[in-house]
Specification:
By secondary structure, this protein is mainly α. It has a domain of about 100 residues. The protein contains ten helices and no strands. The protein is globular and about 50 Å long.
Amino acid sequence: MFNTRKKLRDRATGLKRALANEQRRFGHIDDGAGKRYDIGPLYVNAGELKKALAHYEWYDKACSDDVGEPIHYLCWALALHRTGDVARANDKLLETMVQNVYLLPALLGSPPAVYDMWHSSNSEQPDYLAEVPEEFVPELTDQERSWVKEQLDSFRFRRVRDEYVSTYRALKDERNIDKRRDILRRWNEFWAGYASSDG
């Protein structure tokens, strides 16, 4: 276990160094390979929560307009939860669900309903979790599983999931650009009110 954790930590540190070198050499990050999404999960699975949170803080500032990635967000939520920042953990878990509505039920061992809706990328697909390399998938404790289930069953999560599915179902067959824009605008306005527990 120690050697596995050390390998994960060393790999995360190497990726972090590579991003820093890109920033230093080019003045920006050119991360087509998605290194920024791997560092947090690797640190979380190595048990290095402070390092994981430091990376997520950097990511939040350096990649503020980034679309994100589901396991990256899940591990962000777990790092916050494991360090006692429950309100922010709940917010990040909600963002995780919006990244991929199938991921959290799949982690809990419940075959998720497959929604008839538009999936804009591979990371939103029902089989996403099966494609994630094992070293990035966190092991949840029984207490964490209860927390995830409680959140999924909460009014806030159910309301957001229903609105998300309704929005992306409407987008599935809509070809008119202006109508698509309007559908997404309504979603963004809705999401702004639910994304933070402070909202």
